[in-house]
Every structure is written in C-alpha cells, then in structure tokens.
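User: Some background: our group keeps a shared notebook of sequences we're curious about, and every so often someone picks one and asks for a predicted structure to add to the entry. Today it's my turn. The entry only has the sequence so far, pasted here. Could you supply the structure so I can complete it?
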Amino acid sequence: MAWIFLVAAGVLEVVWAYFMKRSEGFTLFWPTVVTLLVMAASFGLLSVSMKTLPLGTAYTIWTGIGAVGAFLVGIVVLGESVTPMRLAAGALIVLGLVMMKLSSPH
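Assistant: Of course. Here's the predicted structure to add to the notebook entry:
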C-alpha cells in the first residue's frame, strides 16, 4: 500500500506544479486554491508512505515522479522545448527511480 500512496503523491506533485504555473505567481485565485489543496494532499500521501518506506527512497521517488511528470507536462501541455540533452536528462532521472525502487527492501 505504501508504494501506491507514494505513486499517488508523486502524481499529485505533478498536478500542483502545473497549477502553480497556471496561478501566475499565486495571482489567480482558483489555480492558487487548487495548487494549495493538491499540494497538501500530495504531502499527506507522502507522509503516509513514509510510515513504512525509508525516507531516502520515498522522498527520492516522490521528487523523481514530480520532476519527470512536470517535465512531460511541460513538453506535452505547455509546449516547452524538446532537445536531446533534456530527453537524456529525463531518461537518467527515470533510470535513477528504477534503481531506487529495485534497491528498496519494501
């Protein structure tokens, strides 16, 4: 269950990052509200997953899902640039996540 909570927390991190971008520096009301609510839910799920998962594993996976997810949302939804270097960096993050998962005893 901890892994399910952790993945959900990571996905919610992508959602709040997107809405933070849309909030235009917290100047737009609804995107700001969504950012804060989803952020709280993401932190809550991360906290629950940390009851059984090691800190280093949980936090690394959470931030990695957020980083890769925000990277992909930036490209697909926001039209950010795609370069070989950015793709390689994203691939290395994913490789690190896989290695962290495989090294976890849980």
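Suggested note for the entry: The chain has one domain: 2-103. The CA atoms of residues 17 and 46 lie 16 Å apart.
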